[in-house]
Amino acid sequence: MDNITHTLFASTLARTPLGRAGRGATTALILASNAPDIDIVATAGGALKYLEWHRGPTHGPLGILGLGLITAGLVWLGRSALDRRRVAGEGRVANASFGMLAIVSILGVLFHVLMDLPTSYGTRLLSPFDWHWYAFDWMPIVDIYLLMALAAGLIFGWGSDAAGRRNVAIVLVFMSANYGVRAAVHDRAIAIAPRVFGPLLPPRCDMASAPSGLSIDRWPHTAPSGPSGPATRCLVETAAMPDLVSPFRWRLIAQLSNAYEVRDVNLLDAVFRTPPGVGAMWRLTTRYPNQWTPAAMQAAGTPVARAFLGFSRFPAARAFVDRDGITTVSWTDVRFSAGPRPPGAPNGSIGNLFTATVRIAANGLILDAQLGGR
């Protein structure tokens, strides 16, 4: 999720018993809830480093524990410094112990990771022990309804402890309902995918698992072992990516062995209330070729391509040769082919993280490789 959502959620938690652990608990919650995104410092090394480290160890088990303890230590030291400047004997709320600050901070970091997990962007939940990405695909990167609920709960509960506690309960119930509805609608979107794509879907690949709307998704998958073509055409998986505005709009993606079929749908459309077989929705899909030619296999070995393919869930590969014999291989992450920039990515210097390009000379030498297109 975005950092505004994380901050508002931390402020909401501060009105629960967690925030009453003592002076400094609210500050610890807010700092800890944003601490995992400290990986933005990787941008100092350029876009490639950002891609390699984003939502990596800071979002894994060591990050949850380490960042929690570091945050608790910083708040404890800061509070101690302020206490030395205060007039002795002032009546104030008791200070939170370091132990309580540590518990509150670790929970703040943990909630950050758990809020990232249901998004279509995903997170490397077990990094650095396992660098795979995990996601449920229920939530967009920014959920405007969650933002509004969190903000309203804080604004209308301001200045009154009783109203604040009541609003916290209401907001937490709304959040649970919001997640539940999106999970159920996501399951429905996955279920209608065969109807949407119709005859475009080939039989399932031998190793492909049946879709499940409530199962966690994990990537990157095993890299192709060689060129793909019509003879090996089969269905790898189907997925549904949430819309930024409506919980009923989804981007359906069918990953085939040699292409991606993509269609944006609104589950409230009247066509989905008609019997199956009515209409030909599959005629309006967009196809992204995914041809792993020998040149693509070679390009995939470059550091830029390895970093991009380690991040991208649905990388569509394509290649063309110009009149000078130079082969240009590019990959585009189909999830974000027309989507927003990643959360926390600065403008300009970070480049386009959703595309990678490699150029190969006629003699097989790698000329250059970069994130973004040409």
What's the arrangement of secondary structure elements?
Layout: H1 3-13, H2 25-34, H3 47-53, H4 61-85, H5 98-116, E1 133-135, H6 144-156, H7 161-197, E2 217-219, E3 235-242, E4 249-256, E5 259-266, E6 286-289, H8 294-299, H9 303-311, E7 315-321, E8 327-333, E9 355-360, E10 366-371
Antiparallel strand pairs: 1-2, 3-4, 4-5, 5-6, 7-8, 8-9, 9-10
Helix pairs in contact: 1-2, 1-6, 2-4, 2-5, 4-5, 6-7
Describe this structure in words.
- The chain is built from 9 helices and 10 strands.
- It has 374 residues and is of the alpha+beta class.
- It has 3 domains: 3-183, no CATH class; 191-286, no CATH class; 294-371.
- The strands form 3 sheets. A 4-stranded antiparallel β-sheet has the order 3-4-5-6, with helices on one face. A 4-stranded antiparallel β-sheet has the order 7-8-9-10. A two-stranded antiparallel sheet has the order 1-2.
The tally of beta strands, per DSSP, is 10
Determine the structural class based on helices, strands and strand pairing. alpha+beta
Helix content: 25-40%
Distance between the termini: 30 Å
**Low-confidence blocks of residues:** 339-351
What gross morphology would you assign?
flat
Which radius of gyration do the C-alpha atoms yield?
24 Å
Instruction: Give the tally of structural domains.
Output: 3
Oligomeric status of the shown chains? single chain
Record the strand order, biggest sheet.
Answer: 3-4-5-6
- Characterize the biggest β-sheet: 4 strands, antiparallel
How large is the count of helical segments?
Answer: 9
Strand percentage lies at 15-25%
Mean pLDDT: 87
Order of secondary-structure elements:
HHHHHEHHEEEEEHHEEEE
